[in-house]
Structures are given as C-alpha cells and as structure tokens.
Amino acid sequence: MRLVEVFVLQGDRELVVDTAETMGVDYAVTEEVSRGEFEAVVSMPVPPAAVEPLVSALRSAGLAEESYIVVTAAETVISDRSKELFEQFSASRISREELQSRAEELAPATSTYFILLVVSSAIATAGLLINSAATIIGAMVVAPLMGPALAASVGVVVDNDELTTRGVGLQIGGLVAAIATAALIGWLLRGTVLLPPGFDITTVPQIRERITPNLLAVFLALGSGVAGVVSLTRNVGSVLVGVAIAVALVPPAATVGLGIAWGHPEVVATAGALVLVNMLSINLTALILLWLSGYRPHQSARIDHVYGRLRSRVAVLVVAILLLSAVLGGVTYATYQSAAVEHDIQTELQTMSADPIFGDLRFREGVVDYQPFDVYAGTHPSVTVIVERPPGQQEPVDFADDVRARLESVTGTELTVTVELIDSQRSG
After folding, report:
1. Which CATH number fits the domain that encloses residue 20?
2. Angle 239-262/146-157 helices, nearest 10 degrees?
3. Do 133 and 16 fall within a single domain?
4. pLDDT tens, position by position, 164-196
5. Which residues pair with 347 in a beta bridge?
6. Nearest Cα to Cα of residue 58 among 121, 5, 109
7. Residue 198's domain is classified under what CATH number?
8. Is the same domain home to 75 and 175?
9. Which of the residues 105, 261, 306, 336 has an alpha carbon 20 to 30 A from that of 238?
10. Angle at Cα 310 formed by Cα 287 and Cα 94, nearest 5°?
11. What's the pLDDT score for residue 320?
C-alpha cells in the first residue's frame, strides 16, 4: 500500500479533490497553516499500481509542477475499504515515479560506488588466483553493479537523460576500475612467494572458466537482466539479483586484468568479449522488459521520441551482442574440438590396452596438450602416452609409430606422439 500526499498550492484544492473522487480514491484534507504558499495537504491511501495513474490524472487536470507529491510505502493498512481499491488496481508493478526513484537510489554516490567496486574486484581477483569459487561469490555481495545496470535503462524509458548518462558512465567506469584493480594486484603478486614459481593463470580452473566461455554464458546475463527488472518493478528483494549481475560482470573483468598483468592477449580477448556480452545483454533485457511492462515518459508528447531512441539503442545492442557472440561461438567450437580430440584419444588408449596385438603392454595414461587456441593456430595436438611394460615383454617394432597411427585414425587429425615405457613388476 502507498500513501500519496499532495501539498496543494493556493487555488488547486478542488482540482485535487475532484481528481481523487473521479478515480474513486479515498482522501483526507488537512489544512496547511505553516506557510501561505500551500493551502492544504491531501492524503490518499492507494495500492502501488494506482500511484502512476493518480499522478498522471493530477498532472493532466492541471496540478502545478511546483506542488509536492510525496509517495511513501505503508507497512500495514488495516481497513476493509482497501480491498475494493486492490480489485480496481490489480497490476503488480510499481509506478513510474517510484521506479525512477528506486533506480536513482540503487546507483550509489560515485565515491561509495568505486570504493565498493575496488574492494569487490580485489576479493574476486584473490578468489580467481586461489581457485576459490566461494571467495568469488562472496566478493559479489559487495559489488554495487545492479544499480547502474538498471538505472541506465530506466533513464531511457522514462526520458531521464541525466539518469541514463550516470548509469552508463558508472557501468563503463566500474568495469575499467575492476580491470585496473585486478591488473595492479596481478602485477604486484606475480613472481612473489604468494604464488608458486612459474605460475600460469591459464591453468587455474576458475580463470580457465572465464577464458573458455561458450554461448550458454549469455543466458546468465539475460537471466540476470530479467531478474533485475522484476525485482525493481515489483518491489521485491534485490540482494541476490545484485549478486547474479555482479557474478556476470566482475569475475570476467578481473580475469581481463590478470591477462594484462601476465601478458596473455588471448585471455584479455576472450574474457573481455565475455564481460562485454554480459553487460550489453543485461542492458538489452532491461530496456525491452521495462518498455513491455508499460513504462513511458511522463509527457505523452515525448513517447514517440523515446520509442525511436529505444529502437535505435536496442538495434545497436543486438548488433554488438551478435558480433561479440561470434567470438564466444568460436571459443565454444574450439573448446568442443579440443575436448573431442582428448576424449577420442583416451577412449582409444583403453581399447588398445585390451588389443592382443600389443601383448601385455598396458596403456595407462595419455596426456594431451591441445588448447582451444591451438585449433585456430593450426598447432597439432601433442600427446604423451604412458605405457606399462611387464618384465620380459618387448614392444613391437615401430611401436611409437603404430600408436600414433591408431590415435590419428580415431581423431582424424595429425598428432605429435611421445611414448614413455615404464618397466613394472607386480608382487604375487
């Protein structure tokens, strides 16, 4: 329930009362004696869905822009009269005015925003380096990215250029700050005792997850955008939604920073494509859902203008997402190809262990060095095969060539094969 209070200027009292009666809204009039500029305060308890049509009706009736319209959330309303109002205004979304106010509140002060984002990025970077998913998720709790991501879209839909500019600026500045923080931390830690000698960031599973993304990663961003709009427009809890949005943006941004610190351009390219796709997808989803939810500018004359701007922004976002998704699609294909080669090799090695042609030789392990980037670089997979050889057993002539031929036949690609024979004895 909402309590709408209108501070009525001299001469507008009947206008407000007539509007309330026309809409069937209960009201109470309080005489205002504190200043001569206002003659009364009209209080009207209404459902959340009634706030926007009530405010629009008041403005259309000629209520002066200088009048105060204060909307407060009522924790509890005890009255049977409210049932009729809820039946009349049954929509579940909040008003345009509340939407804009909440979007402004979700985008914190610039200093607070960047302090929280730097702290979050630092924690996420540590989580990536130590391969701790719990640490990464914990860092997202303090990342204030939900507000700017939604504020920009709200500003577009309600025709608030200042809110749009601030939302876009905070998003871009926030991602730059996250990347710079991770790059600085990576540069300071590289080569220290806090990391093992020869530490390679591309071997860390949590980092590898961000540099070998597939197209399914886009669904995280799309789902986060949908959840963000629903939490904002329906006035439900937004903490977990904010975490989801932060998870889609901060870890890949921190991965970009680590790629810069370690001098891996392929890490920067793939993680950078992921973070951009996620950011653009969240904004695209928010724009479309806010418009479909019925939010429009306050001035009806501006609706066509805003709709034109909305279509242009959506078109640009869709084109950008498709182009960046091509990068993710390429990574998806390369990841599949490298995984398929490794799977075929391991399966064939098991088959070869049971093949009588190799006697008692047992193929115990195959280490495959074939990264997704090698697929496009044209680098042949390198395979090291560990073979257990019992006492007295002699490997066939041209054994390594036979192994390579068998593996190439199942993978369909040229391989570089190294066979390591290990003499073994087993106790009786």
Report:
1. 3.30.70.120
2. 110
3. no
4. 999 999 999 999 999 999 999 999 998 888 888
5. none
6. 5
7. 1.20.1080
8. no
9. 306
10. 45
11. 92
